[in-house]
């Protein structure tokens, strides 16, 4: 109950504080440079030079403090030893290159990077194409989209239940092992099955991200000019040809956006591995490895930060690409 | 498309069936968990959730009482009891693991040296002997029982009270609501400035916001935690609200700016001509018109904060009183790995709110996605 009031008062203080800041600072500005009197024109001009920064102030403060500063600080830490007391140059990075767990994480991240965006986009495309052509398409879309609302941890539980293992002579309660034994196979401990367990973890993310890909691609498919499709059909193209030769090329731009967005999610994948295998049995990934170095046992902020910076470097190309697209759009 | 009617209808069938299969494939995992959350432990352990709609057959064994439980009746030593619990129904029983269903209910068998065992249909058994019993452990009686399909909400009651999920629910709500409201306010003003005010460096700032969209959260954890410690916030709600505000801002600013840029120029220009200040234009015109974008960001941020594990683990601490639902769920996965009735129920409670939000506000969510921006997580 105490907590409840704390939450309510924070919202109130937060909202009130924000409004007070924006309203108050604008008031003060108008008092200093009143938009009337003999110097009205001058005052309005001056006030208009300052006003944007009043509007932007809190956002810039937050962005600087919570995103820009941490990146710089991590960079600094990655060049220092475990507790940041001694400069060690690139030692942490050379350590990482030689470390077998780091190598495994890089390998797995690359594997995730190849498989998850590709499968999610592919399934998303298929789902979009199918659900756009049926009467109950919207319900179907909702259901495929639904996993997006489920937390990675929740998804972890859901899929661990599917992979649940019982001895071969017991009743299987995991769906996958049930199907496998029905088909005459042996039940397996899927999550410890090196190297395939990586794929069983990836399926979870594909399951979550397909809905996202579907929603975006479905909108893009509907935006394709009818004439191009009709022309192709008149020329005798089969439905598959229409799909792959007419539709897909026209939505290549959207596919790229979907692909890169999922790529960013994949690079930072943490929770799924964290709760399902915790990086054991050859499933370690960068984000979880970093967590290990920063929060387990004796923390080594130097090494942890070095891994974080590697992660940052991996997303940088996408960042640059995004910025270039936006700048093009602004001009 | 005329003249292709036959071909078209067969194609429609193929499309319908494939779509159905795909939807089924995507729904089954969640459905399995949902159904399991209504089954008790024995049901979950003895049969797959897909079998829960029909009566399930179970095999198991119980041990009879031992010497101490024996009574003397008419010169016979007797041990009595029952092999059933709840509304199970006995279909067969046996005394050896190799033949667990050797006898019908009501039959009598001789185990060894004059011991007679009878198991009746109602589950009661009677073990008799002419000499005193000498056994340290009870005899095993193997049973084959049928339990009617019965779904129960007992798991939910247990999980909400005993496993601390009720508390975690409140914690999560406490984290999520301010962490959704505050960034919206801050971002709305910033987005307005980026969209409708003239000042040097506007393009640069917009580009910076886009760049910050993809900064991996992981980079910020340690620097921010240390910053919070050094300015005295430490681990707690204030810290996590601020952190989520910071992490959510790039998406919020970007989404809202994109939307506000598209508002009709004439409306805003004419308000300016009429002498309205930027603050008035923002409050009276831009904010109400931007409602769809505000809603879609609010949903994103709420889902993201509610489902987050990493930020909560780092900024909120890990004691029982502080855990959010994802944290509890993670802990249960470690400590109660095999107790699926607990896990399934907890998981379902933790995803119930996001699912409700998702299904009721899907329209805005989709619109937000299509505004061309998505949070990378």
TrEMBL record, chain A:
Protein name, as recorded: Sugar ABC transporter permease
GO cellular component entries: plasma membrane
Localization in the cell: Cell membrane
Cross-referenced PROSITE patterns: ABC_TM1 (PS50928)
Top-level taxon: Bacteria
Organism: Paracoccus methylarcula
Stored CDD domains: TM_PBP2
One GO BP annotation of this record: transmembrane transport
Primary localization class, coarse: membrane
Family recorded in the similarity comment: Belongs to the binding-protein-dependent transport system permease family.
Annotated transmembrane regions: 6-29, 50-69, 110-131, 143-162, 199-221, 255-281, 301-323
InterPro entries noted in UniProt: MetI-like, MetI-like_sf, UgpAE/MalFG_permease
From TrEMBL, chain B:
Domain ABC transmembrane type-1 per the UniProt entry, residue ranges: 169-361
Membrane topology: Multi-pass membrane protein
GO cellular component, one term: plasma membrane
Membrane spanning stretches: 12-35, 175-197, 203-225, 237-256, 293-319, 340-361
Pfam families hit by this protein: BPD_transp_1
InterPro entries, A to Z: MetI-like, MetI-like_sf
Gene3D superfamilies assigned to the protein according to its UniProt record, in alphabetical order: MetI-like
UniProt keywords, alphabetically: Cell membrane, Membrane, Transmembrane, Transmembrane helix, Transport
PANTHER family reported for this sequence: ABC TRANSPORTER PERMEASE PROTEIN MG189-RELATED-RELATED, OSMOPROTECTIVE COMPOUNDS UPTAKE PERMEASE PROTEIN GGTD
Family affiliation: Belongs to the binding-protein-dependent transport system permease family.
Protein name: Carbohydrate ABC transporter permease
């Amino acid at each position: 109950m105490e907590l409840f009031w704390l939450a309510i008062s924070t919202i109130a203080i937060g909202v009130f504080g924000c409004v007070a800041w924006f309203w108050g600072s604008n008031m003060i500005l108008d008092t200093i440079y009143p938009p009337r009197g003999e110097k009205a024109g001058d005052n309005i001009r001056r006030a208009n030079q300052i006003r944007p920064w009043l509007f932007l102030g809190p956002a810039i403060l937050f962005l600087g403090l919570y995103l820009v500063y941490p990146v710089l600080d991590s960079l600094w830490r990655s060049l220092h030893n475990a507790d940041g007391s001694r400069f060690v140059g690139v030692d942490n990075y050379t350590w990482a290159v030689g470390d077998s767990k780091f190598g495994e994480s890089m390998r797995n991240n690359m594997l995730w990077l190849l498989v998850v965006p590709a499968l999610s986009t592919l399934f998303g495309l298929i789902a979009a194409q199918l659900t756009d052509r049926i009467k109950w398409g919207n319900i179907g879309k909702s259901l495929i989209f639904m996993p997006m609302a489920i937390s990675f941890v929740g998804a972890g539980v859901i899929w661990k239940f599917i992979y649940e293992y019982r001895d071969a002579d017991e009743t299987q309660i995991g769906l996958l092992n049930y199907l496998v034994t029905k088909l005459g196979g042996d039940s397996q401990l899927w999550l410890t099955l090196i190297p395939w367990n990586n794929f069983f973890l990836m399926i979870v993310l594909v399951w979550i991200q397909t809905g996202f890909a579907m929603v975006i691609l479905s909108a893009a498919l509907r935006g394709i000019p009818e004439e191009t499709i009709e022309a192709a059909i008149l020329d005798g193209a089969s439905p598959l040809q229409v799909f792959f030769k007419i539709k897909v090329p026209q939505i290549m731009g959207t596919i790229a956006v979907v692909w890169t967005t999922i790529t960013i999610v994949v690079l930072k994948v943490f929770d799924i591995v964290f709760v399902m295998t915790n990086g054991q049995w050859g499933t370690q990934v960068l984000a979880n490895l970093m967590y290990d170095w920063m929060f387990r046992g004796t923390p080594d902020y130097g090494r942890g930060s070095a891994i974080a910076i590697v992660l940052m470097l991996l997303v940088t190309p996408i960042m640059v690409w995004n910025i270039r697209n936006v700048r093009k759009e602004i001009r | 498309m005329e003249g292709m009617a036959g071909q078209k209808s067969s194609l429609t069938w193929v499309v319908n069936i494939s779509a159905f299969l795909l939807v089924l494939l995507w729904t089954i995992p969640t459905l399995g968990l949902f159904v399991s959350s209504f089954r008790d432990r024995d049901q979950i352990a003895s049969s797959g959730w897909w079998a829960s709609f029909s009566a399930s057959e179970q095999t198991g064994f119980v041990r009879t009482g031992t010497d101490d439980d024996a009574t003397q009746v008419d010169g016979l030593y007797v041990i009595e009891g029952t092999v059933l619990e709840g509304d199970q129904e006995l279909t067969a029983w046996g005394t050896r693991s190799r033949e667990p269903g050797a006898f019908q209910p009501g039959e009598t068998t001789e185990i060894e040296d004059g011991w007679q065992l009878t198991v009746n249909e109602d589950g009661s058994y009677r073990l008799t002997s002419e000499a005193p019993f000498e056994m340290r452990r009870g005899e095993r009686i193997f049973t084959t029982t049928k339990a009617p399909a019965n779904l129960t909400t007992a798991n939910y009651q247990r999980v909400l009270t005993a496993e601390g999920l009720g508390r975690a629910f409140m914690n999560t709500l406490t984290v999520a609501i301010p962490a959704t409201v505050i960034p919206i306010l801050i971002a709305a003003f910033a987005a307005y400035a980026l969209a409708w005010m003239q000042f040097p460096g506007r393009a640069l700032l917009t580009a910076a916001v886009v760049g910050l969209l993809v900064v991996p959260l992981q980079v910020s954890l340690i620097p921010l935690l240390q910053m919070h410690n050094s300015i005295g916030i430490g681990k707690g709600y204030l810290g996590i609200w601020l952190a989520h505000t910071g992490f959510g801002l790039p998406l919020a600013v970007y989404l809202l700016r994109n939307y506000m840029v598209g508002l009709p120029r004439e409306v805003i220009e004419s308000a300016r001509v009429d002498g309205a200040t930027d603050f008035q234009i923002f409050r009276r015109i831009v904010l109400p018109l931007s409602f769809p974008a505000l809603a879609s960001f609010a949903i994103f941020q709420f889902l993201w904060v509610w489902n987050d594990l990493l930020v909560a683990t780092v900024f909120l601490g890990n004691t029982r009183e502080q855990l959010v639902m994802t944290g509890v769920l993670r802990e249960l996965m470690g400590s109660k790995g095999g107790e699926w009735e607990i896990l399934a129920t907890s998981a379902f409670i933790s995803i119930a709110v996001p699912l409700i939000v998702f299904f009721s506000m899907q329209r805005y969510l989709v619109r937000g996605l299509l505004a061309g921006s998505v949070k990378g997580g």
